[in-house]
Amino acid sequence: MSHGTNRQIKNLLDVSTEEKRNFLNSFDYVLTDCDGVIWTIVKPIEGAGEGVSALHENGKRVIFISNNSVRSHEKYVEKFKEGNINASIDDVLHPSLATICYLRKINFKGLIYCIGSSEFKKKLQEAGYEYIDGPNEQIEDFVTLWKAVKDDNPVKAVIIDTDFNVSSAKLIRAEIYLKNPECLFIAGTTDMMLPITKGFKIIGVGPYYKILEEASGRRAVVVGKPGDALKDIVIDKYNIKDPKRVLFIGDTLEQDIGFGTKCGFKTLLVMTGSATKMDLLTHPKKQELPDYYLEAFGDFTKVFDDVTVKNKI
């Protein structure tokens, strides 16, 4: 598939057996997104479990890097089982866990104002961090709004992640805290749109954290994909010595492929989630285009079959 930048983006199934073999031999780690790659919101993606098994059977370490902190650890394990995937929660990194890694790395002490899911807040609390949130009541006038958003709490960090109950009042309160230049500003997921099913997306967290950046004049430390802070967290957490020996798989160009490129990983796009083939043809940022693509994660079984039949890798 050609692109306006004159870069050829090939379906991995269509390349020669030798090129497949060289590619499979070029990485030891596989870091993969989950939503839109391994499963949809409602069910496992057909063949994904077999694709993960094929990678495991050929000596690849598979790690799941998600932008979804709404799903509990128990739900992650449940979804792995539904998809016949041999994995545990230790194989998963998502924004709440990445946030905790970052806060520990900088030895953060202090009160947090959190716009996020109950699961995200639970993880902060379990890690020993104190947070406040809200307002959660309905507000209909400016006097009530002001009383709800202005306080003297000594907030040292504002964190925003997925919150299905985000409101104007919460964003206003966050921006007031961010007027203090010593208050940290951290963002988890930054997805502008979230794929629910094939061809159907909803607004993600991205627009809200962008509102806060514009209103405050601050730039968030992004611990979700494709953040610079996440790059260091991933490499440190999984003891990655050579980024060139890592493959990143995703369904979005900016969050997944852009992150993989930023880290120096090889990249592969699957077409079961957010990105389309038209996106591959028209996307203007070369650094957010993959090395290869597959129609679905399960196609890895066909790739390994082709190479194994003709010559053991």
Automatic annotation (TrEMBL):
Signal peptide: none annotated. Substrate binds at S66, N67, N68, K225. GO terms for cellular component: cytoplasm. Mg(2+) binds at D33, D35, D251. Gene3D superfamilies: HAD superfamily/HAD-like. The active site is at D33, D35. It holds the Pfam family Hydrolase_6. Divalent metal ions. Mg(2+) is the most effective. One of its GO terms (molecular function) is phosphatase activity. Transmembrane segments: none annotated. Keywords: Hydrolase, Magnesium, Metal-binding. This is Glycerol-3-phosphate phosphatase. It comes from Pseudolycoriella hygida.
